[in-house]
Queue: 2 jobs
Job 1
Amino acid sequence: MTESIARQLLGLLSFTLAGAVLGFFTSHNLILGALFGSLLWSILSSLLNAKLVTWLDQNLSSPDPKLPFEQGRIVRSIANYRNKTEAEYDEIHADMDQFQAATSAMKDAIVIIDNQDNIEWWNNAAEEILEITIEQKHKRVQEVFSEPNFLEFYSQSSHIASFKADSADQKRVLEYRVESFGEGDKVLIVRDISESEKVGLMRHTFLANASHELRTPITVIHGYLETLQEQELPKPIQKAIHSMQSQSSRMAALIADLLTLSRLETSSENKSRKPIFIREMLNGITEEAKDVSGPKQHQISLNMDEGFDILGNEGEVRSALSNLVFNAVRYTPANGVIDIALEKLDNGVQFSVTDTGVGIPAEHIPRITERFYRVDEGRSRDSGGTGLGLAIVKHVLVRHNAKLGVTSKPGEGSRFSVTFPESRVVKI
Ligand code: ADP
């Protein structure tokens, strides 16, 4: 800025001086010449400024004027700025076109929602899958999507990863996800998962039917083996029968677990809100655990807070908690300690089993609730497990809005906890 002022002053000074010199040589009048020079500079500056303003008034659309002096500099720097902005604009435009083309090609519906829950933008798939129309632009999500389960999911989207529901015309199954970005804005991504659901259902039906069909033959085989074992038979045959019996027991347990799992998979939440008499249940499980422990002589203790009960499905919760307790018995060497506890927390109730068993290396913990996932294949099989126990636990807990916690140190022991939310607790 100071440079620009200096240049303007220099211009004025040059014209004034040139006028003075001219005045002196033509009429020996230095002052008149200087005045004439400065007047000429002012008129010239005004003319150039007028040209500059006209160009600016035309939004820089006419060709860049070729102006001398400071005005020429102004034209050049504005033109440079304009060219740079145009290049950036073209780049943004190209990116936008590419983004539009990419989102149009996507099969998933994408809806952008601002921090006031207004629908701002969507892609072509959203029009097809969610039937969003242009009239719904800037409308609130709560007005456009009326399904109560979706709205419940949307309002707590930070806690739940995804939500499945039938489409409005009931013809497809949709999976909804909501991700946050920017300052409270959200993107809703909806995928048509009808095909994978169909395959999943077929797999599930097959597994349920196969398990069901296998149950009767295995019960018959098991029964005959039991009868045979009571007979006086040669030693090698007795040994074979004993081995067949233990394998058929394993198979029966496996089938029972597969059937339990397939039943649990059919719905996402157990709506049952009956008190399940948790204290009697845990007393029973602890006694059974002592029986299972048998010669291993574990020290098994049970500590329970009073004054509340858990709401849910008794059979399912028993199956989950007993799986955790029996695992502790299975994976804890003889004379180990197993503490079972039920604690009232500020915002729920926590059941836990702490053992001094073999423990689980950290890298396995995220995967132990997968079906048939075993940390140590040989040890698990020897211990009589089916490999489905923790998968059953996971499903039961999801259906009861409860959370599984696992902490473990190899060689030192493990702690499995189940936290039931306050909504699943009743005072007694
Ligand atoms: P399994 O029938 O093999 O016990 P689960 O699903 O119940 O199957 O458990 C999965 C795996 O997690 C087990 O194979 C075992 O390696 C590990 N595990 C579960 N509970 C414990 C525990 N209390 N201590 C050590 N390892 C455990």
Job 2
Amino acid sequence: MNDPESLGLVYDHDLDSLLGIFEDWGEPTYRGKQIWEGLYRNLWGNPSEFTNISNILREKLADNFSFNHLSPISNLESKDKLTQKSLFRLTDGKTIEAVLMRYNKRCTLCISTQVGCAMGCTFCATGQMGFGRNLSSGEIVEQVIFFSRYLKKEDKRPTNIVVMGMGEPLHNYESTIQAIRQLNHPDGFNLGMRRITVSTVGIIPAIRRFAKDLPQVNLAISLHAADDELRSSMLPINEKYPIHDLMQTCREYTKQTGRRISFEWTLIQGINDTFEQAQKLSRLIEGMLCHVNLVPLNPTNGYDGKKSSRERAKAFKSELESHKIPCTIRVRRGIEILAGCGQLATNN
Ligand code: SAH
Ligand code: SF4
């Protein structure tokens, strides 16, 4: 065989799949483990780096697998150097982005799961693009490997992953789950499930599955509005999965997993930052095991809304706190490098 694509991207394979392939090639089981370690511990990105295996097997790897599907085409760093955003070209020419954020000794990666997004949230740059395609699990994993190699030069590694880049992760369920399992594998990358956060627009059946499949992974729900009329006008998926049903699913989730849910709330001046919305939100989630993240809107080309003022954000927070709802105003990071969801790919 002489087709590097015949077995596809090496990161698309989980350990069992690789072991199966090496077994077919007549290799002992430990060989597969050596290669898994090479990929996920040593972060080797080229078959020639696998000095722990024979020349012949190295050639076989090169002949059958592709070792990268992501080519970095631009890198932007914020002025304070704490946020770095990369735009990657995929093998079909489409582009995705991922962001590295360094705060409080953490190195957090924000990664994408789709090219564009089918959910069409009005204020979101990725939603404004429409849907391109799902990423494969390997294309999701490779974003993490790319930044891990970069951090390795400083003797660091990603401490946290947030699946909050382009796309709706639960609309690309299988690949997202497989990518997380691969990154969690103790013999390889070994990133703890509790260090990973998946953010969803609220696809109810997928949230239920997720609670069973990955109960240790943190779940964030993009709520943004506390009544169906407003939420449907911002997040069209709300027509299909309205707030009442979503809240019921969230309650089941906390009961079943014992885990706190994060609610994401992008603050838009005069739209969802009113006292009335804060009151309605309080009624919805009072007593729930949860936390609210208030994030002032990042401006995008396709949406007129403005971010809330600092005063409005504080007033909104106070109202939630008066109902004993834990709540944080998140600072906008890397705004000058368009580090909001989907903004680099749309401005390219
Ligand atoms: N599709 C998933 C994850 C990607 S979006 C989701 O919607 O949850 C990650 C977060 O960024 C979501 O909470 C989303 O609502 C928010 N977001 C999208 N556009 C934004 C903007 N222009 N400003 C601030 N937050 C935004
Ligand atoms: Fe998709 Fe999330 Fe953007 Fe909505 S906010 S369009 S679900 S990426």
